[in-house]
Amino acid sequence: MRKEYDVVVVGAGPAGSMTAKHAALGGARVLMVEKRQEIGSPVRCGEGLSRASLDEVGIRPDRKWIATEVDGAKIVSPGGHAFVINERMAGNEVGMVLERDMFDKALAADAAKAGAEIMLKTSAVGLITEGGAVKGVKLASYGKTLDVAAGCVVGADGFESQVGRWAGIDTTLKPSDVTSCFQYRLTNIDHDYKYCEFIVGSAAPGGYVWIFPKDEHTANVGIGVLLSKLKKPGQVKKYLDDFIESDERLRKGQPLDAVSGAVSVSPPVEKAVVDGLLLVGDAARIIDPITGGGIHNACITGTFAGKVLSKAAEAGDFSESALMEYERLWRNRLENNLWRNWMAKEKLITLSDETFDKIIQTLAEVGVEKMSVGNILAVIKRKYPELVREFEEFI
User: N or C end of the chain: which has fewer CB within 10 A?
Assistant: First the structure.
């Protein structure tokens, strides 16, 4: 391997691979490092994604990494009322359920075809700085340490992002902005495999339970609970186990795997670039605060970052001012919706089961032509104006 690159990407998830691909396509010398020995594994994701999300970033669907395709989503209230929406309306997490490990490998393969080098079992352990600017990264790989010079280091290392902290970017989170998650891949179940399902209310305080079909008898069944709502370790798993036991469709299910993790449901970082460094995807908190979904946003930010970095490499300028084009691109595309959904999330976590029942029942009866926080609230306001008083700013 070289000891000097235009771009070193830390993390080989969707954000990292899309950054590496587009930077390399533009002629930049790119190294992408992944701390694990296998890209995409272990899977820590519900694995839902929409076709429109792929279209936007130029990814062609491939049966190798699509487990199943669905017609839409059901949002289910604590009392069992279901609001059914089609894929076009359902958002970025509905349309297909992935084999996420294969999806991530496919994106990394695309980056390699574009010219990026890949190193596995290689962790970033620090940054190389000079005069206040990032000039490279310290790596630990297979028991050896090495310094790699880079025009720009890209933090694609997830919401825990050490790279961001090392660069002095504020990535701190409040407990009310973190969701603790637990998921089984459950088989021997009897579910509607044509719909992704989201169950809201006290079954998952501050979050939701999801059922994402993998096939007719298997699904990802998971839960996200706001960290501020948990009182002791392991409680999130108990919430999910209790829900499964209460649902006759799932009660006889058997686990094929179990994964746990956490997701940020916060606003994005105030600043995602400094001299010689930028953050993409989850590392920049560019995750939907209502759903916790991040694949789509990761691909968008990676695409923007890679294209900006290829121009920076050609110009030989990786200063903060040169990288600000990336900031403008992703903020113009995503920031307003992220902030709006975070503010809506802050309100939603205060709602009772009774209120959720009224909301979902109203939506099921009346319907919504185009899904958005504002349209949903406008429909509810017609029947239950008292429920939306605190949400008036979103209408």
Answer: N
